[in-house]
Amino acid sequence: MKYILALDQGTTSTRAIVFAKSGEIISSAQQEFRQIYPKAGWVEHSPQDIMGSTVAVISEALVRANLTAADIAAMGITNQRETTLVWDKKTGKPVCNAIVWQCRRTADFCERLKREGFSEKIYNKTGLVPDAYFSATKIKWILDNVEGARERAERGELLFGTIDTFILWQLSKGRIFATDYTNASRTMLFNIHTLKWDNELLRLFDIPSSMLPEVHPSGHIYGETDAAFFGSPVPVCGVVGDQQSALFGQLCTREGDVKNTYGTGCFLLMNTGRRAVKSRNGLVTTLGACLGGKPDYVLEGSVFVGGAVVQWLRDELKVISSSEESETQALSVKDSGGVYVVPAFTGLGAPYWDAEARGTIVGITRGTSRAQIIRAALEGIAYEVCDLVQAMEKDAEMNITRLAVDGGASKNEFLMQFQADILNCEAVRPELAETTALGAAYLAGLCCGFWSSTEEIKSLSAQSKIYSPKMTERKRLELLDGWRKAVRQTRQN
Ligand code: ADP
Questions:
Q1: Looking at ligand 1, which atom is closest to the CA of residue 311?
Q2: Could you identify the atom of ligand 1 that is nearest to the CA of residue 265?
Q3: Residue 52: exposed, middle, or buried by beta-carbon count in 10 A (0-12, 13-18, 19+)?
Q4: What pLDDT was estimated at residue 311?
Q5: What pLDDT digit, counting tens, does each position of 296-308 carry?
Q6: Which ranges of 285-412 would DSSP assign to H, the alpha helix?
């Protein structure tokens, strides 16, 4: 009997999960690690914390399952995307901490790129808009600011990797230097049409091509971990960025399939098949997971504040004592009584793109209750996702009739029913909510022949919960009209 191991190296914690052939979880282990904030707007991770937690959770998950590394058929890695590391090719020693995707230290340089007219060129090649979020300007920052780094890079002594690449390199003791299409497509250096690193962009960001890893499909035999780590070598057969992993874990493998993850923020991804859709609404075009051949294109949009509005109700307003309580409170009233909460705490993203907008509560009367405000906050998440879905429908010229959902806040039954109602489409939540880890496990298992096909995997999936729309069209349009008015009131211009 063999098993599949998924490693999920996320932004706040690292997790390992062991899956059986039936798709059942045999064991798991998780470790949180430090967030380092050296200055306002800067976010770093320690490379030692990332590797330490990786080795620890894998070892612990094996022990808990009473297994050894020899029982693992293959491992799949999924990871926080865009986070950047540069290390020495000989010693493996990073030249500085990892610069995390959330870090804004290169925002000014990105503004300059926009002003100087590079947006279109970058978008046409990479599907991305110039932003500090993506890896390219983070690498440039390291080469420009860490003493001696540029000279060493030019002598071919330094390597760049996103977190997947760093983990692969370390666990193989430098034998594997690779990434996959999904991670490469978030660097702003990878041409998503030619599927190659782009020399013109490398020149623009002043990055030597000798620093870059090989790029493979997500399902691929990457190599083996060194026996020193887990007792015997473990084959690595899957590498995939977290959002694309969740898309694959939800089995959104056909054109038009869409998933939304309700975490701290929300991430909406649509598989657009062979079509690289050009967005007119500020969504980005990126690459999906594949097992050999060419990857599908994916249209992606995000909402900055999703489940975070629930944390705000709990930790700042203190009107609920747990996230779960938001649901009972919301269900204790028949409606929000005309109250709208627009959670634009850090501005509005797609399709508005207004960085100056701020959170607003509108429609309060003398009779407004605490429960109505809580309900309106949950509804606010659903409205934001609805705006994003509509932008995606316009861009892709497709109607979305089924939304696969996952993430922490998707446990909220009220929110899921309201989402289905306001979108007038089914929301479908899988029984096994670990879709991010599942995607990497499926890819690794399919690649090494542990599972024979996606059909076999589909037959494994436990029952999903389906939320069907129940609201009248009249009510839906009335509520959406109120939301649009509320959004207008958050905007400064
Ligand atoms: P992340 O991966 O971004 O850390 P998770 O998928 O773990 O996020 O989801 C955590 C988020 O989900 C938090 O913002 C939390 O407030 C929210 N959340 C968790 N449970 C519920 C619930 N029952 N109702 C509403 N929101 C919830």
A1: 16
A2: 3
A3: middle
A4: 92
A5: 999 999 888 899 9
A6: 308-315, 325-331, 370-396
